[in-house]
């Protein structure tokens, strides 16, 4: 009897909205072709790695025109079936090519076709001589002494990646202790959690009544799906609720995944998780490819019981999922803004629902979407209205800085408060969401600012005499002459964190100033070093961007100053006021987290603005309720569904021409309830040398919008104008830029 032919339907990394049919490689057992295995494939002139979605006995393409896959890379599926199903759902919902979605599921080494096995790495542990060694012998070698102390606390040893995470730049100290005979390499396979080391669960801090009630609600839901919105004021102890719920999931033999919005929050949170659970896996972009593969495999195989990661960790396969936590659920960092534009927060909810497990969305400033879902009964709202322990809510006050003298953006009122709090032994945090030295370098004679040659944006002046565009990354030295009038007279206008840092160092030379922004924390381990110095009291004045506003616990900070509260008041983006209120509330929450009361001073040129007045007098909850009413009346999300079709090209007319053709295509589908707005130039029309425009699709219900996108998007690539642009679709956009 003749065997039916076998066809392989493969997800190939390409921008096309389809899978591709291939013939199997010659002389390969047909039983090995299971969904989730990887294949090396010819694709055009390239060789790529694809993922098998399914097999079939027929193909719409004649067999004579099909190419054969070159090699089967796996003898068993690398991707579990539930992850393949999740990828299909995400490709359909976010309207993104399935081949590119599959790339998000795998670390780089697996995308490249490398073996799905753990790389061998050293595991460092003290020898008997090292265990008996006297630390006094290392008094002139502080890094060696720190390494010796660390390994004394971990007699079972530490894998290389974990040791580097704990002690950045420890390579020289490792070599020195090896030479001394105090250290040995007990080679094992790198894995995020050693299978032969039990996962200890330490006793947590005692919970207050509200924390205990929240933890009890989550643990009672283990084993079934339920979404919880943990709405707790800053300092209310949300992390302790997470830890209690995770401990219950782990005790039941399940895995727990905690998502954080920023890589710079990871070390501090990892320290708290490890103090409770011992070995905890990490997954974020700061790890190298081998480290990410180790965590990915340990999560998939069930060895990693507790995993902490950033946005990409939402795609980690879990063998026995028990609980997902999304900390700072409101944060925009959970939305991927390029390529595959998924929301890790929303993906976490979908994963929890599919796996029948609880998910916790925690924050002090819930997104309006989450508040709406709670009001509709989709989420269960748990509230922590008071700060943990004896800490009290900080007092908030607006500082009217109109007509007042300013020293690099610092009013005399704020400087007096800084002096008072430093004099009382407190620490001070000043918030300014602009890094660099100054946002504008301007010609004194003609008033022309130095602009980016590739964007509709001004260049930012940095203290090392560079001009940097924070939109496209372009850099150039300060010019000798104004390009407009030829004058050699320039002035720096406005304040960035570098300039404020310089002013504070001059005004308070004995306080110790720490600057926290993307520039000052670029080097590996620099963020941890700054935070350690702050905790030890060596730095008593902190100035920084939104990196300082969330997740950090500074118990000695008694004053928070917001240098410029006016940036979000007049934006064209309908979400700007929500983001501004969240940011102010979050940064204000850094004050008074311990025994001493906190004070928050907010500088503004708009002291009577109703948004600021509402936020300061009534708090974020009342502000959010009013903002939801405004959104409902204006038919904006969460009371409407949006999709944004973006296009860009080197020629100014090309994006608009493509979007006009796209609009005709959409209109021809006659989708009831879907409005087409635009096309229009993007708020920043030119970025990185390319002109940008967009078309907004708006609907009161999600279903007709999704139906229209499913029908029309595959045809967009067939438009003649599509050849002259790069285009993308963003479902549920968080920015209309």
Task: Describe this protein with a few key phrases.
737 residues; 7-stranded parallel beta sheet; 6-stranded parallel beta sheet
Q: How do the strands and helices of this protein lay out in sequence?
A:
Blueprint: E1 7-11, E2 20-22, E3 38-43, E4 46-56, E5 71-72, H1 81-93, H2 98-105, H3 108-111, E6 120-121, E7 123-126, H4 128-132, H5 142-153, E8 158-159, H6 160-166, H7 171-180, E9 183-185, E10 188-189, H8 209-221, E11 226-232, H9 238-251, E12 255-259, H10 266-277, E13 281-283, H11 289-301, E14 306-309, E15 321-327, H12 344-355, E16 358-363, H13 368-375, E17 380-384, E18 395-400, E19 406-407, E20 410-411, H14 412-423, E21 427-431, E22 440-443, E23 460-462, E24 466-468, E25 475-477, E26 490-493, H15 497-507, E27 513-516, H16 526-535, E28 541-544, E29 557-562, H17 576-588, E30 599-604, H18 610-618, H19 620-634, E31 641-649, H20 653-668, E32 674-687, E33 690-699, H21 702-716, E34 726-731
Parallel strand pairs: 11-16, 11-17, 12-14, 12-15, 13-14, 15-16, 18-30, 21-28, 21-29, 27-28, 29-30
Antiparallel strand pairs: 1-2, 1-4, 3-4, 3-5, 6-10, 7-8, 7-9, 19-20, 22-26, 23-24, 24-25, 31-33, 31-34, 32-33
